[in-house]
Amino acid sequence: MENLRKGFPVLEQYTYLNTAASGLLPESVWEFRQNHDLDFLIGGSVFKDKQADALTETRELVGEFFNCEPSKVALVPNFSYGFNTLLEGLKKPQKALLLENDYPSLNWAVESRDFQISYAEIDQNLEKNITEAFEKQQPDFFAFSIVQYINGIKIELDFIKKLKQKYPETLFFADGTQFCGTEAYNFEESGLDVLICSTYKWLNAGYGNAFMLFKDGVQGKIAPKTLGFGSLQGKYKAHEGNFIGKFEPGHQDTLNYGSLAEALKLINKIGLTEISSRIESLSAKAKAEFTKMDLLEESVVKRNAHSSIFNIKGGDKLFQHLRSKQIIVSQRGEGVRVSFHYFNTEKELDLLIKEIKEFGI
């Protein structure tokens, strides 16, 4: 376990329980970034001539990691850019289904456009609420986060797959930013039409890079209007009017997308099964302990499966107390949000619980 922690210097000075806000930069990714810019410094355009190969490697690594053909993987700078480009390619008006209080970058993007919007409530009956909303509204598209950023509620992915089978004409758009990198996910066999993910959290790839995965049937239903010289550059974008090229109109950043490639190589080296197992074990213990201490909302306690993100009771004073003990967490909603990644330990969870008890909750 200690070997997995050595690649993250932040862990030497903090108890870092805040991946849900910002993942850590691994030393291996930092080293790549140093070498990348040194090569650019001394090579200029000679180095940049290799740009297409670098982007191809990243696209293929993402595709292999999530079981999606590389020709259906778009590299974008962040979730918001990709999602807004996607929405601009939809014919309007359309009926949209969202989740109440979902991540602002998702809901705001839909709400700022001329869609007829309905909502499903996020609680212990999330899937039932969504089912009822579908029966009532028959939405043209359903956009949602797989894991909720405030309290960590995770939607049942088998439910999404069955729902898509029942409503094949509805487009399913998912934000995987709080999910991707925590467990294996087979996009091709999923119920999603589009998965979008910023990779600075659980994939530990740094900022400025994200990806989009597409199913075959999407191209006939979405017509992005963005276009640029970069839209036609690269192994998988060679023909005019290609679909993923419309999400990549300009010069692509090999530093940031190369960072994503290095982050995926690190995860592959550790093993996603190992990572998932560690996260699941910590999450189960945390939920059990927090439940005994009456720190969680009812909607989280009553659900069987959960992510490794928890919102515990306590306001600014608890937050400041934990920070004074070098325990890094976030304030979200009405509580304090803690999150556990594979480099965290039961010892750190025990320390958190000890400090919460000493604080007096």
Automatic annotation (TrEMBL):
Do you know which Gene3D superfamilies this protein is assigned to? Aspartate Aminotransferase, domain 1, Type I PLP-dependent aspartate aminotransferase-like (Major domain)
Where in this chain does the record put each Aminotransferase class V domain? 16-352
What Gene Ontology molecular function terms does this protein carry?
Answer: lyase activity
User: Its domain of life?
Assistant: Bacteria
Q: Does the keyword Lyase apply?
A: yes
InterPro entries noted in UniProt? Aminotrans_V_dom, PyrdxlP-dep_Trfase, PyrdxlP-dep_Trfase_major, PyrdxlP-dep_Trfase_small
Q: Recite the UniProt keywords alphabetically.
A: Lyase, Pyridoxal phosphate
Q: Does the keyword Lyase apply?
A: yes
Protein's name in the database: Selenocysteine lyase/Cysteine desulfurase
Biological source species: Salegentibacter holothuriorum
